[in-house]
From TrEMBL:
Belongs to the adenosylhomocysteinase family. Its EC number is 3.13.2.1. One of its GO terms (molecular function) is adenosylhomocysteinase activity. It is found in: Cytoplasm. This is Adenosylhomocysteinase. It comes from Persephonella hydrogeniphila. Binds 1 NAD(+) per subunit.
Length: 418
């Protein structure tokens, strides 16, 4: 088996951590038990470009249980957990190509290693696997049934490809499933981003001014958790509806240029470029801590900050200090990459359980339905989303009501009125 991981001697530690995460992933466990019996992915090759974490490991194990040949590479150079990568290779016979801190050339070489296995289904977290395939390996496209995408960033990319007429096969937007974005993005990103910031800085949030750039589901979750830690939360937005929602939720709303003047912490979760830019650095107060929890390291204009700085140094693990000509210091966490994964362990297993359940069921759906699908971005079918929610409730021991026949008839009729 070909693979490229940092050190196989880390595998024992990784195996224990994978087992620990699995205890909090009952939905995926139920799907794995079903897959082991039915083998819906038998004969299918799956190429995955995902964060190599304990939760992802359990997804890979589930896909393999369903009969698939699985190949995994990292979707971010700083998110790989080297012990997990080693355990996947040594104990689960899943070829993995990922090393924490790998350079850009190695990162893309690993993606090409996975593409060399001629996958039938791709799984992306940010879109690099599919975009590389479309740019450099179009001869593989006839072999592809379809793909899945885990992030807002990736879905935006693929919808742009669809609009331009260059998307060559169907992609299921797992990110847009209710059981993904309502829970993973909100509760997962909210908690894990705070976790990454605290691990990196050990700073007190209570009493601080905490700026959240972007009020999508990730921003909502982050604002909620920062407020819960005692911070004064400010939201910056470009969408008037989301800005209004943030204000109605009790947060101050203002342009970034104003927020940057008073911020102790600034965290971007927008999926867009240069959200924190040169003119913002120019007005930040001394000691401002800036981090990103969006997928790519483009939301903070680090190039501009480097050009402005007279010196820079690492003052803690995952904390880089940039000294400006007037003596102010700006601190960037985790090189502007996803702070929740680069400085912490990412989302808790309990929320990734639902996200990866959607991934597994979407792979099965593609195998059964790819001949009927067009090269478009599709939402996760409602029946799969509801199934994941039902399995989660079942695992939590929660029962809910069902509509009576009378209620079903009432909701489907136009004749009933006041």
């Amino acid at each position: 088996m070909e693979y490229h991981v940092k050190d196989l001697s880390l595998a024992d530690k990784g195996k224990l951590r994978i087992e620990w995460a699995e205890k909090d992933m009952p939905v995926l466990r139920q799907i794995r038990e079903k897959f082991e019996k039915e083998k819906p992915l038998k004969g299918i090759t799956i190429g995955a470009c995902l964060h190599v974490t304990t939760e992802t490991a359990n997804l890979m194990i589930t896909l393999k249980a369903g009969g698939a040949d699985v190949y995994l590479t990292a979707s971010n150079p700083l998110s790989t957990q080297d012990d997990v990568a080693a355990a996947l290779v040594k104990y689960f016979d899943i070829p993995t190509f990922a090393i924490h801190g790998e350079d850009t050339d190695t990162y893309y070489q690993h993606i090409k290693e996975v593409l060399d296995r001629k996958p039938n289904i791709t799984m992306d977290d940010g879109g690099d696997l599919i975009s590389t395939l479309h740019k450099e390996r179009q001869e593989l496209i006839p072999n592809i049934y379809g793909g899945t995408e885990e992030t807002t960033t990736g879905v935006i990319r693929f919808k742009a490809m669809e609009k331009d007429g260059v998307l060559k096969f169907p992609v299921i937007a797992v990110n847009d499933a209710y059981t993904k974005h309502l829970f993973d993005n909100r509760y997962g990103t909210g908690q894990s981003t705070i976790d990454g910031i605290l691990r990196a800085t050990n700073r007190l949030l209570a009493g601080s001014v905490f700026v959240v750039a972007g009020y999508g589901w990730c921003g909502r979750g982050l604002a909620m958790r920062a407020e819960g830690m005692g911070a004064e939360v400010i939201v910056t937005e470009v969408d008037p509806l989301k800005a209004l929602e943030a204000r109605m939720d009790g947060y101050r709303v203002m342009p970034m240029i104003e927020a940057a003047k008073i911020a102790d912490f600034i965290v971007t979760v927008t999926g867009n470029i240069n959200v924190v830019d040169k003119h913002h650095f120019e007005v930040m107060k001394d000691g401002c801590i800036v981090a990103n929890s969006g997928h790519f390291d483009v939301e903070i204009n680090l190039k501009a900050l480097r050009e402005m700085a007279v010196s820079q140094r690492d003052v803690r693990e995952n904390v880089r200090e940039y000294r400006l000509p007037d003596g102010r210091n700006i601190y960037i966490l985790a090189e502007g990459r996803l702070v929740n994964l680069a400085a912490a362990e990412g989302h808790p297993a309990a929320v990734m359980d639902m996200s990866f359940a959607n991934q597994a069921l979407s792979a099965e759906y593609l195998v059964k339905n790819y001949k009927k699908l067009q090269p478009k971005v599709y939402k996760v079918p409602d029946e799969l989303d509801f199934e994941v929610a039902k399995l989660k409730l079942n695992a939590m021991g929660i029962e809910i009501d069902e509509l009576t026949p009378e209620q079903v008839e009432y909701l489907s009729s136009w004749e009933h009125g006041t």
